[in-house]
Amino acid sequence: MIRLEGVSKIYRPGREITVPALRGITLEVIKGEFVSIMGSSGSGKSTLMHIIGCLDRPTEGSYFLDDNEISEKGDNDLAEFRNKYIGFVFQSFNLLPRLNALENVELPMIYRGARVSERRKRAAYALEMVGLSDRLRHRPAELSGGQQQRVAIARALVGEPSLFLADEPTGNLDSKSSEEVMGIFRELNEQGITIIFVTHEEDIAAFTKRVIRLRDGLVIEDQKNGEPKADNLKSGGVRAR
Amino acid sequence: MTFWEWVKIALKSIGANKLRSVLTMLGIIIGVGAVIALVAVGQGASQGVSARFESMGAHLILIRPVRSAGGELFIEDAYELEERVPTIEFAVPALTLSTAIKYQTESYDTSVEGVTAGLPEVRNHYPELGRFLIPQEVEMRSRVVVLGQTVVKELFGSQNPLEKTVYIKGQPFVVVGVMEAKGAAMGGDSDDIAYIPVTTAQRLSGTNSMSTIYAKAKSADDAKTALNHITLLFNRKFPRPDAVRITSQDELLSAVGETSQTFTVLLGAIASISLLVGGIGIMNIMLVSVTERTREIGIRKAIGAKKRDVMGQFLIESILLSVVGGILGSILGVTASRFISRFAGWPTVISPGSVILAFSFAVVVGLFFGVYPAQKAAALDPIEALRHE
Ligand SMILES: Nc1ncnc2c1ncn2[C@@H]1O[C@H](COP(=O)(O)OP(=O)(O)OP(=O)(O)O)[C@@H](O)[C@H]1O
Ligand SMILES: [Mg+2]
Known about the structure:
The structure holds 2 protein chains of 2 kinds.
Chain A: E1 2-11, E2 19-29, E3 34-39, H1 45-52, E4 60-65, E5 68-69, H2 75-85, E6 86-89, H3 101-112, H4 116-129, H5 145-157, E7 163-167, H6 175-190, E8 194-198, H7 202-205, E9 210-215, E10 218-224, H8 229-234
Parallel strand pairs in A: 3-8, 3-9, 6-7, 7-8
Antiparallel strand pairs in A: 1-2, 1-4, 4-5, 9-10
Helix pairs in contact in A: 3-4, 3-5, 4-5, 5-6
Chain B: H1 3-16, H2 18-55, E1 60-65, H3 75-84, E2 88-103, E3 106-115, H4 119-123, E4 127-130, H5 135-140, E5 144-147, H6 149-156, E6 165-168, E7 171-179, E8 184-185, E9 188-189, E10 193-197, H7 198-205, E11 212-217, H8 220-237, E12 244-248, H9 249-292, H10 294-302, H11 307-344, H12 352-378, H13 382-387
Parallel strand pairs in B: 3-10, 5-7
Antiparallel strand pairs in B: 1-11, 1-12, 2-3, 2-6, 2-11, 4-7, 5-10, 6-7, 8-9
Helix pairs in contact in B: 1-11, 2-9, 2-11, 2-12, 9-11, 9-12, 11-12
Bound molecules: adenosine-5'-triphosphate (ATP) and magnesium ion (MG).
């Protein structure tokens, strides 16, 4: 599904200053996996997610998404990958405040060029999957945090992505809402969608079969739940260095 | 994504900030309105001028002797013109005296013009009461007079002047007619005049030489040929080419027409500047809007909007602002023109051309000034845009 080879990302906020956010990440995730990424603040989790999500390109190294070398593609190609293959959920929801739930969920389909009737139907269906059929006409401000995040999940789902990414999706939610969201993730994964998400909380990470830990832009641990680390390193699906 | 969906999205964001959108459009509204109204005033003025010239007599050619250059004209010259220049329909000799006309105790200074019976056709000025001079009266040196409206008003007030006797240079004249009102024209009041037979005028003034010959060409085209022909004729007659001054009303008309055309273009150009300023207003607001909506742009890009999607969204927004501004401005311009004619009394002519021109200029301005902000929006990096607060 995805493969990163020696991916590094160096930010240059000033002339002389360089910030290495990722320092050579090599990692593979196969289709249907459910992966969580952990690490302290500033360890590079979001940077990594952005690269995987085609929102950004690595400074060095290569990133393959289904055999497409992403780091060599242009902006418009990246936009198309984001639109067709990837659903991205942000910690801060990132809904458009002036649009209601249905219109927000429709957006990716608009950019895909879907007809009105088609995208209405799919948006309504996606909202039904996250349990918000009764909130179609509500604007984000009229929804709770948990509901907003579910709208964002529906928006990520509406295009039927093969890769579903979430950067701290439960970071702004209480424990009940978090569990609802994780329940949705699990269902999606059971339908065969590959999911990678970032979290700070061990008990949320415990939902997943595989946990990758970052520190200072490096993978320091890559484990499958209930299995020893060493075993994991050999298991082919995962390689860390 | 269909065009109408673009428009719907743009309308939504314009509607989200109504006051600001209206203020932005105000620049375009005033610009378009000003172009239409000022061009209407300019065209109204130029048509008014042309109409006045035509009322003075279409295709009129004036021939005046220049005494210092040895020029002198006689009645016979007029008859000769009529006979020998085929493009001339009529030629009327005129001998003008500046003198007083007296009626009972009233006296009024006016210009008394000795003319022949053909004058009404030549000058496009006809009697309203009674009749004009007839050829026999010219032949007989009759003492009859046809008065202009101003003279009638001064001497007779509201009385009927027909058949009354007035005195010119001590001689009694019978009023046989009153000319129709013509109003003020270039160079004074055309109703402040009295016509007597040219022969009578010769006797009154003691001179045979004419002040002017009025000639009327058959058409505008003929006027040019006639002018050349007349010039040739008089050049043969006098040793100096400047002995007579020949002016054509049509030439004057086209000169005035050109002047007022320039005037109209100038007014339009000045108004266009305000349209340009309106365009800068649109650019300004669109730039603010791009900054304000950086996050929105980030979100749209993150879920798959391409450069041209974002570009299109902002471009359509600025075009829409200018189109709506253009429509409202056209309405304002037309209304203002009507207002100007009604309350200031200036004639205005609203040509569809100026409305279309102003409107399309507005749209082009919106497009032109929308491109830069739209490009700026389209070039934003999604991650940086999302991080923007
Ligand atoms: N645009 C940027 N310019 C400069 N430095 C950046 C930029 N974005 C991230 N960084 C730096 O890169 C490093 C990794 O940032 P990143 O956002 O990936 O961390 P994170 O693991 O997601 O942290 P958190 O848990 O707080 O979200 C940090 O040191 C951060 O300061
Ligand atoms: Mg982060």
